[in-house]
# Entry
Amino acid sequence: MNEALNNLLTRRACRAYEEQQIKKEELDAILEAGKYAPTARGLQSPIMVVVQDKETIRDLEKMNGAVMGNPYGTPFYGAPTLIVVFGKKDSLLGAADANLVIGNLLNGANAVGVDSCYIWRADEAFETEQGQAYKKAWGIPENYQGMGNVILGYGKAEGKKEAAPRKEDYVRFV
Ligand SMILES: Cc1cc2nc3c(=O)[nH]c(=O)nc-3n(C[C@H](O)[C@H](O)[C@H](O)COP(=O)(O)O)c2cc1C
# Structure
């Protein structure tokens, strides 16, 4: 099968990670894939923030868990790298742009042999006082909202499930 298509079909969400950090060249390639996502009017509106400091990841994980009502949970599953993707608030386009970037990050990761998962609740997490403080420290403008978190790392075997069968009526030819 075509290599690019095979990459799209074999990416799976991973929910258990080794501690080992991914290589810089892998991270760079993944970020480059993110940068080349299509964006409305070519404005490249999203912002990606890379976090590899363990304590900061843990802090952000607590914020994410708190949104779920469980600040002691591990919604980032021990992944050593986190990319927070911010989208421009003003229109639906900002959300669409950011989610296409996230898709490219996930598929880019698979292409270089890095495991990943999209983690939700960035919006609520970065609306909190603590989240706002992070935004300020990272220089994220006020009119940006947390759109999604991408966790990255080398997955443990138990971290991934087989792809679910695709629903029968996914596509309608009319
Ligand atoms: C918008 C979105 C939000 C998601 N949020 C979470 C999440 O918070 N936690 C999680 O473990 N997985 C999350 N996922 C991963 C999905 O659960 C996963 O993609 C889905 O089960 C299909 O599995 P696959 O990615 O291996 O095909 C999210 C995926 C998407 C697209």
Notes: The chain has one domain: 22-158. Helices lie at 3-10, 24-35, 54-67, 92-111, 122-125, 129-137. Residues 92-111 form the longest helix (20 residues). The mean pLDDT is 97.
